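Incident log, entry 3
Record: Mutator-like transposase domain-containing protein (179 residues)
Problem: checksum mismatch between cached and fresh output.
Input:
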Amino acid sequence: MARAKANKKSDNPGVIGTTARESESGSAQDICSGRRIVDIPYLAEKLKCHSCQELLSLKNIEREKRMGLHSLFTIRCKKCLKTTIVSTGKTHTTRDSHQHADVNTKAILGTVHAGVGCTGLNKVLACLNVPTVSSNLFKRYEREVGPAIEESAKESCRRAAQEERKLVIENIDKLCDEL
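Fresh output:
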């Protein structure tokens, strides 16, 4: 009975929500078309059934919930036939207590640093056949990395000012002679 349900094709394979995209279909190849960015050591560690500890196969993915570049796979165990949700990478808690995926934070930080924005990131992802990032998700993560970038820039300016002050003090006699 569980197998029949696993092989049933959904009438709506691409349900789109505000924070995640879910796919459900007959085979892992249908569900996870294209490429994904995964943390290989993390994924390998998590590919175990929560019930019987059997190693899980990516061939048995029944559902994918995408949140930007991060995915949660629902995988059925061949041994006990129960499902386990497996994350493709690590997450972290933001200052405002939200769970954010590391891969999304790093991708958005990279695009801000490179000055390309959401459209530029999505053009690269499309060429790589990786699912794209919504503008809402991009904005949410941009609000996370923005203050960190600002603080880093302020700290860099403080260090530069201290260094300049130190050099002026060390070379005060030479500077006075030149003036």
